[in-house]
Amino acid sequence: MLAFRRRSDVATTLFFFLIVSSLFPLGIGPEPAVLSSIAPGVLWVAALLAGMLSLTRLFAADFADGSLEQMLLAPQPLALLVLAKIFAHWLICGLPVVLLAPIIGLQYALPNDALLVLVFALLLGTPALSLIGAIGAALTLGVRGSGLLVALLVLPLYIPVLIFGAGAVAASQHGMSSQAHLSLLAACSLLALVLAPMATAAALRISVE
Amino acid sequence: MNINWFKYSSPQTFYPLAGKMIPWFAWLAAILAVAGLYIGFAIAPTDFQQGEAYRIIFVHVPAAWMSMVIYIVMAGWAAIGLALNARLSAMMAQALAPTGAIFTLIALVTGSLWGKPMWGTWWVWDARLTSELILLFLYLGFIALQSSIDDPRRADRAGALLALVGVVNVPIIYFSVKWWNTLHQGSSINMGAAPKMAATMLLGMLIMALAFWMYTVAVALMRVRCIMLERERTSDWVKELSVQGIAGVKS
Amino acid sequence: MLTAQSLACLRGDRLLFKNVGFELNAGGLLYVLGENGSGKSSLLRMLCGLLMPEDGAVFWGGKKIKEDAENFLSNLTYIGHLNGLKDDLTAQENLYMGARLAGSEVSEESALAALAAIGIARCANLPVRVLSQGQKRRVALARLWLTDSKLWVLDEPFAALDAASVDVLASRLSQHMSNGGMTIITTHQDVTINAQSSQILRLSS
To answer: Could you tell me if B141 lies within 8 Å of chain A, comparing CB atoms?
Structure first.
């Protein structure tokens, strides 16, 4: 439905993810054992922040040029349109991070099994990040200092995803099954999939007034 | 909708009513707090394991209870405000948020004060303490969102939606933190494993919780009165009130 | 068909208007007049359901617009202050997207015909970014040649248009009304639009 002709967003998000996750070894030291033990947390936090970077732009352009009003006045359910936008956001900001993550995981001396789990966990978890983030983006639409505010609103809500996501990778590192973590992560994503578009739609109606 | 109590949901009639109720709740809060502290510090026996330092739980536990209760009450008011487009409920939600945040902060500070003699560190990544910290973030987010939106109606409704999203999330967050905590055991000490409480201790805590509750009501009512005046400064009844006030000062 | 009942609008702590009511029937035209800041745009947004009235309600065919949203919205075309165009898309693509959003499909011929009708056929394949204000406005208004919705709500449609386009648009509006459509507009210009019945609503602060 929506054409994406600006590619700079993908590049910025990926670059940010890359930089943040490269800073940690520089700050901590190149000890592989240390790096691989912090890798799950660091990579997930980096993914969290990278996804948040572009959140403010999720609806901002539509809000500024009036397309958002037209979306609200479309006869289709707003939640569906919102879901399409969120999906597009995930394709641009979530999926590239998922694809890049194993390469960075190699830098952190993660074993192959853990890399696989990392990709899988990110694949399950990043949609939840986009979904929850959209609520924050919609609430702060057109508010001054919205970038910072989105972080304040959304980051606490990201905590379960972070815990289960990083936990999955850590579990596989320690030779345990990561299945429980992954199922919980999937449950988070599903719950977000059901509730977030509606909440976002309601937030947009409030913000556009 | 000709129910009688609907009358009180308009700010104009609620303002004087709230004014009359404040002293009652404030006195109740003071009396209960004195009673609770007396039980806590004078009557309750010294804990044989933890010594005197444990007495901080008479503040800590009720504050932690209240921080959670207030969030739920706040979300409840927010939901009513959103559903019925009632200004007063939105104002109540707004008035409760700072008190909730303060109780959360008290719970955190007293928790770490307790942790120092008990565990030897100021901060332990205990599941409850961590959840409490996240709850503080949720409160701060709510306050920040409300204060950064200029239009009061939008601020109310956006805040209400956020509070509802938060209330759905709180159990999930709590569960995930607990899960995370059980996986990373080792050095951590479980607060839940405290020895069985004596009846007097429980009584003290309950009375303190009631005192905090009354305090919350009194403070929320005061704050809601301020919000009302600020919001409705252009309306007739507020102008009338200020004219009366000036006349009262002169006479 | 469209009824407004004792609408009131509060912006910040300022009451813009209250007790605004009217009834608009098929073929009817409603001018909303008033100074800047008297709440014309707010009223229009309220009639579309974008803005929640502080008091009162809007009815479409006897039902509250919130309760019968899908039916109401599929009969509504709203063009506000903002054009609702995507800068990166061409004029033509913008029309496709607008129609898709409104739940209908538009063929290439009819999109080109709409752009030609309002005199910007040669801009059809240019990205909207490079167009002038007046041209952008006309791309937004071209939607009026593609829609079969009954109720048009137009906020200052004549602003930024040249004289020729004003005439074209006025005759399109007249045609819409003679087909039994309804239009609500705000304008500062003196334009003659033919309608079976026209009313004036004046907002004063």
So the answer is: yes
Burial code of A24-49, b = ≥16 C-beta within 10 A, e = fewer? bbeeeeeeeeebbbbbbbbbbbbbbb
Against chain C, the chains showing at least 3 CB pairs within 8 Å are: A, B
The angle that helices A78-89 and A179-208 make with each other, rounded to 10 degrees, is 120
pLDDT in tens, B113-133: 887 777 777 787 777 788 889
Residue by residue, what is the 3-state secondary structure of chain C? CEEEEEEEEEECCEEEEEEEEEEECCCEEEEEEECCCCCHHHHHHHHHCCCCCCEEEEEECCEECCCCHHHHHCCEEEECCCCCCCCCCEHHHHHHHHHHHCCCCCCHHHHHHHHHHCCCHHHCCCEHHHCCHHHHHHHHHHHHHCCCCCEEEEECCCCCCCHHHHHHHHHHHHHHHHCCCEEEEECCCCCCCCCCEEEEEEECC
Q: How far is CA C143 from CA B124, C28, C115, C137, in A?
A: 62, 20, 9, 11
Q: How far apart are CA A42 and CA B211, in angstroms?
A: 44
Highest mean pLDDT among A96-100, B16-20, B32-36, B200-204: A96-100
Domain boundaries, chain B: 21-45+55-186+197-250
- pLDDT tens-digit profile of A106-119? 888 888 888 999 99
Interface of B with A in 3-22 (CB under 8 A): none
- What's the per-residue H, E or C state across B8-62? HHCHHHHHHHHHHHHHHHHHHHHHHHHHHHHHHHHHCCCECCCEHHHHHHHHHHH
Distances (CA, A) of A60 to A63, A106, A134, A139, C16: 5, 36, 11, 11, 27
Phi, psi (rounded to 5 degrees) for A148: -70, -40
- The per-residue b/e assignment along A84-108, b for 16 or more CB within 10 angstroms, e otherwise, is ebbbbbbebbbbbbbebbbebbebb
Nearest-CA distance from B7 to chain C in Å?
17
Distances (CA, A) of C76 to A178, C50, C57: 52, 12, 17
Query: Across residues B67-71, what is the average pLDDT?
Result: 91
Scan residues 52-111 of C and list those with Cβ closer than 8 Å to B.
Answer: 52
